[in-house]
Amino acid sequence: MDHPTNTGNETRPVPTIHLDAAEMAILLLLGRRPATLADLAHSTWLDPSQLYLVLGRLVHRWLAEQSGAHYGLTRSGMLLSSKIRAVVDAMGEGQGSDDEKRARRGESPPGPTRDTLERVEDLLKEAYWNPAHLSGASSA
């Protein structure tokens, strides 16, 4: 039996993240309008503890490639992990200038907009640094 050999010329597959239904629901909601953690708890079937677990999964999965204890993400996207970038690229999002050109033409972008990604960043940071906020999400 012949074993495949690696010549170094093979194309490498783009790493992907498979999102489950809860994660997709959160991202779709954020794509429609700005939302707080309380909004997400009210607008999905998740109770606050489930919402915390889903956001926690997103935090750990998306930020796994960040080294050290620094979990902050920049607005410029320079510190976005390669996994986040791969997911966004797979969804067909272009560069920010492409988003602006589409907006001027009245077209909607094929994937999440920069604003949506920034809102996801905010929520992930909020969930990571202030998990106690979720305990009051259902009473908001």
List the helices and strands and how they pair.
Elements: H1 21-32, H2 37-43, H3 48-62, H4 82-90, H5 96-105, H6 114-129
Helix pairs in contact: 1-6, 3-6
**C-alpha Rg (nearest Å):** 18 Å
Mean pLDDT figure: 56
Structural class designation: mainly alpha
For the secondary structure, the number of strands is 0
Total domain count: 1
Tell me the strand percentage band: under 5%
In a nutshell, what does this entry contain?
The protein has 140 residues and is an all-alpha fold. The chain has 6 helices and no strands.
Describe the protein in words.
Helix content is 49%, strand content 0%. With 140 residues, it is mainly alpha-helical. The radius of gyration is 18 Å and the shape is elongated.
Question: What descriptors fit this protein?
Answer:
140 residues, mainly alpha, 0% strand, 49% helix, disordered C terminus
